[in-house]
């Protein structure tokens, strides 16, 4: 089995194993907390119903109102600032879910907009990541020259380390800003930055959703949008290096297999009809029937050597076989016939058998033949 197939099967098995292990760990970490929260919320619901003497239906109405009002706390979501924020979440595939279109026209345009914008965004981030990797390689080369290193070229490992470090610094710096503006803990801010820049976008924590920030804090809105776009470019650059490192392994194996197959094909001996071919050249022709004789011209055209004494080396793709010739006079050495008396020739009957002629004349006739 080829290495590419083995690697693909190994990746599939490893991925599913990783998913199963992750599901087991998340189950262990979160299931008990979920049960406790459910019990606490049920107790609070019953307490509110008893305290204010309202029915369960009225409580469900109040719950719906609270849930529907939550997105509006950030201000008007579909003015230009909020719409631009939504467009970024669509194009970058983050998809927080903090605001979603409610009209049929808005949903149709979202599908059309995402179908064109998502590939455009991926190409843009890929291009920015390539430029960033190029800049990082130049910086690494300059640093190595100043350190008087023997090898000043930026290796793939150097690039991965540099871009990964830059990604970590971007997440750490953004987390500090979001912790200040949103009032989150620093750990929660790091979690939000990681989920955002990896385009996971759970939507449990979304920036610009408090105190009417979309309308009252334009500088914070500008920072949040630039952070998302710039941070995605940096993280995309680091992820591309990691992914391409594994993708090129398959490409290298395929090229090596093609080179080995080509080399084996050049040294192969194969039979094409009645012709033996070695290394792409015709070696010899074989006669199908032992009683048949090939013409001399065909022998010289098939054989590439000068064993027949002729310099003509014309090749033909197939060895042609002809029937035995009726006359072989062209294969025997020709000799000059002695001058005969033309009158005696005219007097002799034209259809006289060879055996009735005189012995000397018969011998001369044989020599001419």
From TrEMBL:
Domain Potassium channel intervals: 75-132, 168-243
Cellular compartment(s): Membrane
Region spans: Disordered: 344-369
BP term (GO), one: stabilization of membrane potential
Keywords: Ion channel, Ion transport, Membrane, Potassium, Potassium channel, Potassium transport, Transmembrane, Transmembrane helix, Transport
Transmembrane spans: 6-29, 78-96, 108-125, 159-177, 189-208, 220-247
Pfam families assigned to the protein according to its UniProt record, in alphabetical order: Ion_trans_2
UniProt topology in membrane: Multi-pass membrane protein
Source organism, top-level taxon: Eukaryota
Family, similarity comment: Belongs to the two pore domain potassium channel (TC 1.A.1.8) family.
Protein name: Two pore potassium channel protein sup-9
Source organism (scientific name): Habropoda laboriosa
């Amino acid at each position: 089995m080829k290495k590419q197939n083995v690697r693909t099967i190994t990746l599939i098995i490893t991925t599913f194993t990783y998913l199963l292990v992750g599901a087991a760990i998340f189950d262990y970490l979160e299931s008990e907390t979920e049960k406790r929260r459910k019990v606490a919320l049920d107790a609070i619901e019953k307490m509110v119903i008893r305290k204010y003497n309202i029915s369960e239906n009225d409580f469900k109405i109040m719950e719906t109102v609270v849930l529907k009002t939550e997105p509006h706390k950030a201000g008007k979501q579909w003015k230009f600032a909020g719409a631009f924020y939504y467009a970024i979440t669509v194009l970058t595939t983050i998809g927080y879910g903090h605001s979603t279109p409610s009209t049929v026209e808005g949903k149709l345009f979202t599908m059309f907009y995402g179908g064109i914008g998502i590939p455009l965004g991926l190409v843009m981030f890929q291009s920015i990541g390539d430029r960033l990797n190029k800049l990082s390689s130049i910086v690494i080369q300059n640093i190595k020259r100043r350190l008087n290193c023997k090898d000043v070229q930026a290796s793939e490992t150097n690039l991965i380390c540099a871009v990964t470090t830059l990604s970590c610094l971007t997440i750490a710096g953004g987390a500090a800003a979001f912790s200040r503006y949103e009032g989150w803990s620093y750990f929660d801010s790091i979690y939000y930055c990681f989920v955002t820049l990896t385009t996971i976008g759970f939507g449990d924590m979304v920036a610009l959703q408090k105190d009417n920030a979309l309308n009252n804090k334009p500088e914070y809105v500008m920072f949040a949008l630039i952070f998302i776009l710039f941070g995605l470019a940096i993280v995309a650059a680091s992820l591309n290096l990691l992914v391409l490192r594994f993708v090129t392994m398959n490409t290298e194996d395929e090229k090596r297999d093609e080179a080995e197959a080509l080399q084996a094909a050049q040294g192969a001996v194969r039979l094409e009809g009645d012709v033996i071919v070695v290394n792409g050249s015709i070696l010899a022709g074989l006669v199908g029937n032992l009683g048949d004789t090939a013409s001399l011209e065909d022998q010289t055209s098939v054989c590439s050597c000068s064993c027949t004494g002729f310099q003509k080396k014309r090749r033909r793709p197939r060895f042609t076989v002809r029937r035995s010739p009726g006359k072989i006079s062209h294969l025997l050495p020709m000799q000059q016939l002695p001058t005969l008396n033309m009158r005696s020739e005219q007097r002799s009957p034209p259809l006289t058998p060879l055996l009735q002629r005189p012995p000397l004349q018969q011998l001369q006739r044989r020599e001419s033949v």
